[in-house]
User: Fold this.
Amino acid sequence: MSNRALLEVIALDAEDAIAAQAGGADRLELVTDMAADGLTPPRETFAAIRAAVDIPLRVMIRKADGFAAGEVSGLVEAARGLRAEGAEEFVLGFLNPDGSPDLAAVEAVLAELDGCRWTFHRAIDRAADRDGLRKALAELPGLDTYLTAGSPAGVDEGMPVLLAEAARRGEPGYGARILVGGGLGLSHLPMLREAGVDAFHIGGAARPSGWGRPVSAEAVAEWRHALD
Assistant:
């Protein structure tokens, strides 16, 4: 089995996707509206990116800033449309006001996904009880990844949580892969790799000129080299 770590890059459009793939990204997270930390992209954007690259795409299902589900029918409609367009992997995750997982909203979306693989995104970093959330979600179909920084403040503060959760790999609720992202820097990689973490997610780090600029293939290649 290969020890190659997975590198996932946020892409907003086909230009981003082409550069990320050229730099060595293994997978893309497709979003729109980074001012709201990433919302569901239009079907047309997904189709353009799918035509432009041949690496896996995970598409965000999220209609509003924050981690409340909002109008669930809109989420369901978005999921249905993206499935019809050919999307096969997704990113989602919603919390109730008390910080518990919004299972009703998650399950409503999953009903449209036909068992597709999906990531529970950084809502876990805002959860009232991370361990309880993991155990509540453990048996949901298709869940194979948690995108997390270990803390709402980012990897610097979340590192102890990330290391502790990595050490629990294989326990009930800890079968899904840890995908580290959110303030992730190259300096964090040695400690995380030593702990067995093998999946990493970058957004701003792939855009050294700023969030308003396209992905840089050279920046992605630097991360690919560091991971290899």
